[in-house]
Design goal:
Length: about 350
């Protein structure tokens, strides 16, 4: 009979891995928060390697300008405007049918983060902003779930594994959350695909040590790499003397922040996201029919898109909308209220 693990033979002969390690991986769950450039590479590694259950969460849809870095997507995904989580899951299932892949088209926020991370043995950072990272940090510290931080900007990137109770948390490492607009973003500074691939590889390697119960091999370091200058640096991390509000005092400010409908300017995209809370269940077909009287509406199983008053509006099934071209959040909300309902 065919051995289902035979496909993993080249990794099972690695030191300390073996069939036992492979079988252990098959029983483990990993969540990838954000499935853009970093998340694509991370999820592909996890699924190829045979982690039993991989959850990919992302709020966005595929666009042509994603393709230079976001390894799981195709021109067809962009043309159809498929949500990234859906397109990713579709591709990941083709890569390894032994893995249970679960897609979540969701905005990771204070309302959704705890449920999303709660079932996982390790969380991987594929986010593109600090709000989500600091939120994931709080949730992981609260529930004592290990996670691996990673970030890329330009040709430079960095990564560190965070094990609550054992290592410093993100707040310990980076201090208070940078205020929006105070740090450059990929939209303003650009991003080099191979730098993303490198940081994703660093994240996955640390995460695998956790999944394989080889925590003694964790680097306990912040690893920094610049692929263009060729600088590689590793700085040992340790808890400082000063008490951390998150992992020492267990103040979870972001987790307990006011829940409810909110708007967020999507950095560098000229777009505003509107997230009604509690998340309503939206009848996309009925709304599409209604809007079609006004002008062209495109839709697929997960979203619909229409233009109104010079803006492009993308509405997801969870009631969330991304409004492109609105001058501000107030205008975007007004547009939402007018065309979709408040
Ligand atoms: Zn801390």
């Amino acid at each position: 009979m065919n051995d289902p693990l035979a496909r993993y033979s080249r990794q099972m002969i690695l030191p300390g891995w073996g069939r036992e390690g492979q079988e252990r991986l098959a029983c483990r769950t990993a969540t990838v928060v954000g499935c853009g450039a970093l998340g694509s590479h991370i999820a592909a590694h996890l699924v190829r390697i045979g982690v039993g259950h991989v959850i990919v969460a992302d709020r966005d849809f595929v666009e042509m300008h994603n393709l230079p870095r976001q390894a799981l997507y195709t021109e067809q995904d962009a043309a159809e405007g498929v949500p990234k989580a859906v397109a990713a899951a579709r591709r990941l299932r083709q890569i390894n049918s032994l893995v249970k892949v679960e897609e979540r088209v969701v905005d990771v926020d204070a309302d959704t983060v705890e449920e999303l991370i709660g079932r996982a043995d390790v969380i991987f950072d594929g986010a593109d902003n600090f709000e989500v990272r600091y939120l994931v940090n709080e949730a992981c510290v609260k529930h004592r779930i290990p996670w691996v931080y990673g970030g890329v900007l330009g040709t430079y990137g960095l990564s560190a594994a965070i094990v609550p109770g054992e290592t410093p948390c993100l707040r310990c490492l980076l201090g208070p959350m940078p205020t929006p607009g105070s740090v450059p973003t990929c939209e303003t500074a650009g991003v080099l695909g191979p730098a993303v691939a490198t940081v994703a590889a660093l994240e996955v390697a640390e995460g695998l040590k956790i999944l394989l119960d080889q925590r003694q091999a964790l680097l306990h370091s912040l690893v920094m790499v610049d692929l263009w200058s060729g600088d590689f640096e590793r700085v040992q991390t340790a808890k400082g003397a000063e008490a951390c509000p998150v992992c020492d005092e267990r103040q979870f400010e972001m987790l307990t922040a006011q829940h409810g409908c909110w708007t967020e300017v999507l950095c560098g995209r000229g777009a505003v996201q509107i997230t009604p809370r509690p998340a309503p269940s939206v009848d996309l077909e009925a709304i599409a029919q209604r809007l079609a009287e006004m002008g062209p509406v495109t839709s697929n199983d997960y979203l619909l898109r229409f233009s109104a008053e010079g803006c492009e509006v993308t509405l997801f099934r969870d009631g969330r909308a991304i409004v492109k071209g609105a001058p501000g959040t107030a205008e975007a909300r007004a547009l939402y209220a007018r065309y979709i309902g408040s």
